[in-house]
Specification:
This is Sortase family protein. The chain has about 220 residues and is mainly β. It has 3 helices and 10 strands. About 10% of the residues lie in helices and about 30% in strands.
Length: about 220
């Protein structure tokens, strides 16, 4: 798989779950501190450093025909009352941004990364935190997840797979280590991403990203 359009994933850091809220607001109550950051970093095969232009493999086209990829189709997180449909998404050719589903109650799986069958790498799912027109998004309460919380991702094969949260981290969007979170190597894990922190009405975006890392239970 080729490395293409590295700026697209940098755009994710700047615009994942980009919203159109008309006032400066905080994204609910923020976590007091990050938890499990060191444990999450050890899942990657090689250490990743924060960068605004990571060398993340990004491609366009259909799912690889030579791989038995099992996409997630449903995500349930009991602790924050989430039951959401998962859509396979890529990078928007026009905006160069991660193409999160427009309906805020649905979330997107990065289709050019690993699927649920993987024995290595990060399965990335991103979603909106909220929307001026649609209200709270599926990941509005993602920031409330803590170590030990559980979630279930169901694949297109009908199998429900259990995961356990090991980390919750918040990054300024220019500092998020996307190389780590979109890696195709290291131990298998599920990476959930949404927006967080205060909303900048002038820039029309949240300042931060919330990242939750979960491992097979």
């Amino acid at each position: 798989m080729t490395v293409r359009n590295r700026g697209a994933l940098a755009a994710l850091a700047a615009g994942v779950a980009a919203l159109t809220v008309s006032t400066l607001v905080a994204c609910g109550s923020q976590p007091a501190e990050n938890v499990g950051a060191e444990e999450a970093s050890t899942l990657a095969s090689t250490p990743a450093t924060a960068t605004s232009a990571p060398a993340v493999p990004v491609t366009v086209g259909e799912l690889p025909a030579d791989a038995a990829i099992i996409p997630p189709v449903r995500l349930v997180i009991p602790g924050i009352d989430v039951t959401a449909t998962v859509n396979a998404v890529g990078i928007n050719d026009r905006t160069n941004e991660f193409e999160v589903p427009p309906s805020v109650d649905q979330i997107g799986w990065y289709r050019y990364g690993p699927g649920l069958e993987t024995d290595a790498g990060s399965v990335v799912i991103a979603g909106h935190v909220d929307s001026a027109k649609q209200g709270k998004g599926a990941f509005f309460r993602l920031r409330e997840l803590d170590q030990g919380d559980t979630l279930t991702a169901t694949g297109s094969d009908g199998e429900a797979r259990q995961y356990r949260v090991i980390a919750r981290e918040e990054y300024a969007k220019t500092k998020i280590p996307l190389d780590r979170y979109f890696a195709r190597d290291g131990k298998p894990r599920l990476t959930l991403i949404t927006c967080g922190g205060p909303f900048d009405a002038k820039a029309r975006k949240y300042r931060d990203n919330i990242v939750v890392t979960a491992v097979p239970a």
